[in-house]
Amino acid sequence: MKHLKTLLLVPMLLLVWGAQAVASEVQTRGGAFYVYLSPAVEFSEVLERLYTEIEAQSWEVLRVQDIDDGLREHYGIDIENKVIYACRSKYLAEAIKENPNVTLLVPCRIAIYRVDYAGRAAGPGAEGGKIVIGVTNPIHEADLLGIEERETIKVVADELRSMLEGVAEFYH
Q1: Which H or E run includes 156?
Q2: Mean pLDDT of the region 136-153
Q3: Between the CA of residue 53 and those of 43, 120, 155, 161, what are the distances in Å?
Q4: Is residue 68 situated within a structural domain?
Q5: What is the pLDDT of residues 59-116, one digit of tens each?
Q6: Domain holding 64: CATH number?
Q7: Where does the DUF302 domain lie (predicted)?
Q8: Exposed, middle or buried by CB within 10 Å (0-12, 13-18, 19+), for 148?
């Protein structure tokens, strides 16, 4: 009977853990949040979906740095790589009241890029690999700067993570 309980418990635990892994596609590594998407997904579509998620959180896209265009033009490197500069002014105003050093953390930069199977920067024709979306966790950045006032920073971190979760859920 004891072995039967164990045999039944193990598959149930695996199902629960597996469901959690599917539900939470955002990974945290080295002080940043990441989402990894299939290389079959169109880069431009993922970029548009990311804009949608940013706007859904009432954030503003301040500008987009086309790293890929610059490298292609000046060095002949054909990759897909962009950085979105985003901000939510309300949070910035609150955070600066908490600690003016927060200014060093703005705007939030969300990177989207394609890598090949070996993790190297890649263009649209790359075999294997994935599309990566990443953003630095502002709580980690606050740690590095010794910023202890974190109420607003925690809200910002949650919303940035939520943006990435929205993209991940859309494609899975």
Answers
A1: helix 151-171
A2: 94
A3: 15, 27, 16, 11
A4: yes
A5: 999 999 999 999 999 999 999 999 999 999 999 999 999 999 999 999 999 999 999 9
A6: 3.30.310.70
A7: 66-116
A8: exposed
